[in-house]
Each structure stands twice: as C-alpha cells, then as structure tokens.
Write a structure and sequence with these properties.
222 residues, alpha+beta, 60s Ribosomal Protein L30, Chain: A, five-stranded mixed β-sheet, 60% helix, elongated
C-alpha cells in the first residue's frame, strides 16, 4: 500500500489525473483523493495538466455535439419522410389549387394577357408546367422560355438544361440574357445558379384571366 501511495504521488506530480492514476495502479479514486489532497504540481506540470483537461473537455463537447447533430438530422429526416407519405397523388383539383397558389405567390400578375412565371428551382418549374399543361390546358405553341444567366454560364448549356426540365422545345426559347447587378455580385457566390433562372411566358388572355379567377376564388374562401 505504501509503495502504491508513493507511486500515486509521483504520478500526480507528473500531471496524471485521478482517472489515469486509478487505471495504472488499480487504486480507487476515493483512496487517491485522500492520498493526494495535499500534493501540488509544479507550475509547468500544472499548466500541462490543465491544458490536457481542456483538450479532453473540448473533444468531449465536440463529440457530444456531433452525436446530437446526427440525432437531430435523423429525427428531422423521419419527420419529413412521414409527412411526405401523407401526400397522395395529386388529383386535377389538387393541382388546380396548388398551381394557382404557386402562381399567386411567384407569378407575374400585372397584366391580363400574359402568364409569366420565373424561378430557378427545377422542381417548382416542373410543377408549374404540369399546372399549365394539365389544368390550364395551354397549347404547346403558346409557351416560350427565356433564361437569365450569369456570365459564367453558356447559353447553349442553360437552354438545353431547361428544355429537358420543361419539355419545351429549344426552338421556343428566346435568346438568353445576362444581367447581374453590382449588389448581386457581392451577395451571390460564384456559380450559385449553374443554369440560370427560367422565365416561362404564355401569351393567352383567356387563360391568364382564368388563373386570376382561381386565385380570386381561393382568396375569397380564406
């Protein structure tokens, strides 16, 4: 026991923690606390000891945060997947309501003779095209595409991409245009929109007014 005590004191002076000494000697920490309560470290050893404690604490916090982050991510994924499974296939009536609400939020509404919808999200573009074709029953020859691109994007690449997304023939796309304000240059990282932003235009006053009527109908039911 006496040899263990001397060894414990020596290890403590070297900057070992109670946990480390207990593992080395097999001595309970309660015993070590009695043996070592008056044992002091040199300033150099104490600094090294405290630095090691801080490093362990930092690693422990990092590991804890990593586990918590992973738990939160998996929980969020499950919630999202459960919610996604609540949505059935969209009926034509569903599509009318969803498409009208989407156009109400994002569409151009200042005239009575043109429908125009601008966005860079391919899924949103697919949804509005489904709405235009299946609910509004727009004929293909009335649809035009117009892409706004950044200087780093080639027009051919952008038109090819959006043509595949929308199923609009490339010949019905207008000439791409590049427009980037000084403020956007400072805010947007390079290549944020790799295929630019698509504007879909439909020149038909009857359909335009019909969509506005659906929006009005929704607003009156709120």
């Amino acid at each position: 026991m006496r040899n263990d005590k001397h060894s414990a004191i020596s290890l403590r002076k070297q900057g070992k923690s109670y946990n480390e000494i207990s593992k080395i000697l097999g001595t309970p920490k309660s015993t070590l606390s009695l043996w070592l309560k008056n044992v002091s470290m040199s300033p150099k050893v104490r600094k090294k000891f405290l630095d090691a404690v801080k490093e362990r604490q930092s690693k422990s916090i990092t590991e804890f945060n990593k586990k918590q982050g992973e738990y939160a991510r998996k929980k969020a994924q499950k919630i999202q997947q459960d919610a996604a499974e609540m949505v059935n296939a969209l009926s034509k009536k569903d599509l009318l309501l969803v498409g009208s609400a989407l156009y109400w939020a994002e569409g151009f509404k200042k005239t009575r003779w043109i429908l125009a919808f601008t966005n860079s999200d391919p899924l949103m573009i697919k949804l509005i095209m489904k709405f235009f074709r299946e609910v509004c029953e727009v004929t293909e020859e009335k649809i035009r595409g117009n892409v706004q691109i950044h200087p780093n994007v080639t027009p051919k690449q952008a038109i090819s991409y959006w043509s595949k997304i929308t199923k609009i023939p490339q010949c019905q796309f207008l000439k791409c245009y590049t427009r980037l304000s000084p403020s956007s240059k400072q805010k947007r990282p390079y290549n944020t929109l790799p295929y630019g932003t698509l504007r879909i235009s439909i020149y038909d006053s009857k359909i335009t007014n019909t969509v506005k009527g659906w929006i009005q109908g929704i607003s009156e039911k709120i």
